[in-house]
Amino acid sequence: DTAVSQTPKYLVTQMGNDKSIKCEQNLGHDTMYWYKQDSKKFLKIMFSYNNKELIINETVPNRFSPKSPDKAHLNLHINSLELGDSAVYFCASSRQGGGYTFGSGTRLTVV
Amino acid sequence: KQEVTQIPAALSVPEGENLVLNCSFTDSAIYNLQWFRQDPGKGLTSLLLIQSSQREQTSGRLNASLDKSSGRSTLYIAASQPGDSATYLCAADRGSTLGRLYFGRGTQLTVWP
After folding, report:
1. B89 phi, psi to nearest 5 deg
2. Segment 35-54 of chain B within 8 Å of chain A by CB
3. Do the beta carbons of residue B34 and residue B91 sit within 8 Å?
């Protein structure tokens, strides 16, 4: 199936830990994104990568570090997790001029 | 900065009704306009994409229109069904390699039998 897949689907962790979320797309898109959906369900962009190059970094704390090993993968590493990081994180991809395809989300809970 | 507003925030209707969900955006220099559906605890499913040169798109019982000059898009749902219950999100894309989606806060739709 052509899709954007992200893992894990759920992540429960303690404050101060470091965790990673992985994302892969097999749609042949050039651009990949991380979006955050907060507790009020509002979606906002965090990062975008175009062909492995960071394009958008939307005033996200530097505890969040994206990494794109190739244009089909975009991972998100979070250091020193805080309670306020609890949210749903969505990976997405697009091609220029086309629509966006989203993954199913990773629900991160920091306790 | 692009701001996207969706009205109403919530809608509860009996099945069979024809519905209108509204979306407005402040910067008319958008590239594409995309409507998504989100079920509780789930991801985003793309419903309709209105590309730069288009004014509307249709898929089954759904029809979306786009008027860039007035900064508005409308999603029509015909003959609503309980299975249509979900949150509907409107998102504007600025296009180019700096593309990003600016989302509205959604319309939470409940269709009861």
Report:
1. -115, 135
2. 36, 38, 41-44, 46, 49, 51-52
3. yes
Q: Which amino acid is at B46?
A: S
Give residue B97's pLDDT.
59
Q: Per-residue pLDDT tens for B78-111?
A: 999 999 999 999 999 877 656 789 999 999 999 9
pLDDT in tens, B3-42: 999 999 999 999 999 999 999 999 888 889 999 999 998 9
* Residue numbers in B near A105 (CB within 8 A): 42-43
Would an 8 Å CB–CB cutoff place A69 in contact with chain B?
A: no
CA distance linking residue A68 with residue A73, whole number of Å: 6
**Token pair 């600025």 is at which residue?**
B94
Q: For testing the chain A interface, which of B101, B102, B105, B107 should be mutated: the one with the most A CBs within 10 Å?
A: B101
Question: Are the CB atoms for B94 and A31 separated by under 8 Å?
Answer: no
- Give me the torsion for CA of B69, B11, B42, B50, rounded to 10°: -20
Query: A13: burial class by Cβ within 10 Å (0-12, 13-18, 19+)?
Result: middle
Partner-chain contact A94 B103, CB within 8 Å? no
